[in-house]
Amino acid sequence: MFEHLKEQPKDKILALMQAYKDDPRDDKIDLGVGVYKNPQGVTPIMRAVKEAERRWWDEETTKAYTGLAGDPAFSDAMIGLVLGDAVARDHVAAVATPGGTGAVRQAFDLIHMANPQARVFVSDPTWPNHLSILKHLGIETVSYRYFDSETGGVDFDGMMADLAGLRAGDVVLLHGCCHNPTGANLTGPEWQAVIALMNDIGALPMIDIAYQGFGDGLEADAAATRAVASGCPEVLIAASCSKNFGIYRERTGILMAVAQDKGMHAVTQGNLAYLNRQNYSFPPDHGARLVSVVLHSDDLRADWQAELEEVRNGMLALREQLSTELRKLTNSDRYGFIAQHRGMFSRLGLSPETVERLRKDHGIYMVGDSRINIAGLNKDTVPKLAQAIVEVGA
Ligand code: LMR
């Protein structure tokens, strides 16, 4: 049977991770995979998470199964974190999932189950794994213009023109904040216009929010998701705890389905639990438990928020520094958008050949579309990157 298997295309981000590991150069710089690193190049365990682990170690008395939807205290805490009081709790069905990717996968599965004709509209560009999972599930995708490589901002007119091609029952995949891979985000009024368009047509929004707290702060980063949740009849939200709690390998995420019609709640909740059972049965508990302990303890929550702010402000400072260095070296504002972008990533708008030269000649690793992970830099490597960009003639 195995002879019928075909080789699968390599995931570009993960392949880059490996290439970086294999590079023997001491001064190499990793701006690839979206993992936070402190100025020493370490991905630390956040203080509050470590303390939650200690407390939970003392408290935990069994490893027996939780429920199919995971621990309800985790769902309650995450619904509060992402949605605030934008919608009533009894309008939200939710299940814990293995990471944000697990939530994305379950959401696509649910869409396909509910409406096999639904097409999913995705931003051009989007996180490559969105496209890969959609293809794997045989779901038709339509891309909408999103990034304006001339300005480094959002091509909002192009986006709206392409979304006008939606049909009732189609899905629009949107990044709640900190767009991956571009770093360019919609303004509040632009979000309102997208909401109105989706409602006029009868399209369903799906939000992927994987970087809450990395852009303008926990509350500001959730504003768009909350506006969609309160402004549309139904919405799917895939949220990740990998980045903002720094618990990547614990695989912790949540899928929420919000409906204005409360009558939908029980059947939607049942379908989400059914999908968990079909795909992996019970979701992993450890990471979810740590998140729950942090969010339900006043002292740990305050400490977590403070550390997250340090992380966010550190990335903003690096953005400013890189943009200023490039302004000095190029004598132009061509890279001014880096300071305007938000989150972990910026797409620099370099050609694949230039990206390749940066890797070969300078040991600087970024994704082939010229996405950089800002957190892979520190104040000493920013000038090196800026100099290298100028040297390769970008
Ligand atoms: C990224 O975009 O680099 C992260 O979301 C990690 C991943 O799984 O691709």
UniProtKB/TrEMBL annotation:
E.C. code: 2.6.1.57
For this record, the Gene Ontology CC terms, alphabetical, are: cytosol
User: Could you tell me the keywords of this UniProt record?
Assistant: Aminotransferase, Pyridoxal phosphate, Transferase
Kindly state a single biological-process term from the GO annotations of this entry. L-phenylalanine biosynthetic process from chorismate via phenylpyruvate
SUPFAM superfamilies recorded? PLP-dependent transferases (SSF53383)
Q: What are the residue boundaries of the Aminotransferase class I/classII large domain, all occurrences included?
A: 27-389
Alphabetically, the GO molecular function entries are: identical protein binding; L-aspartate:2-oxoglutarate aminotransferase activity; L-tyrosine-2-oxoglutarate transaminase activity; pyridoxal phosphate binding
Which family would the database say this protein is a member of? Belongs to the class-I pyridoxal-phosphate-dependent aminotransferase family.
Provide the assembly information: Homodimer.
Against PANTHER family, the record matches this protein to:
ASPARTATE AMINOTRANSFERASE, ASPARTATE AMINOTRANSFERASE, MITOCHONDRIAL
Q: What protein does this entry describe?
A: Aromatic-amino-acid aminotransferase
Organism of origin? Roseovarius halotolerans
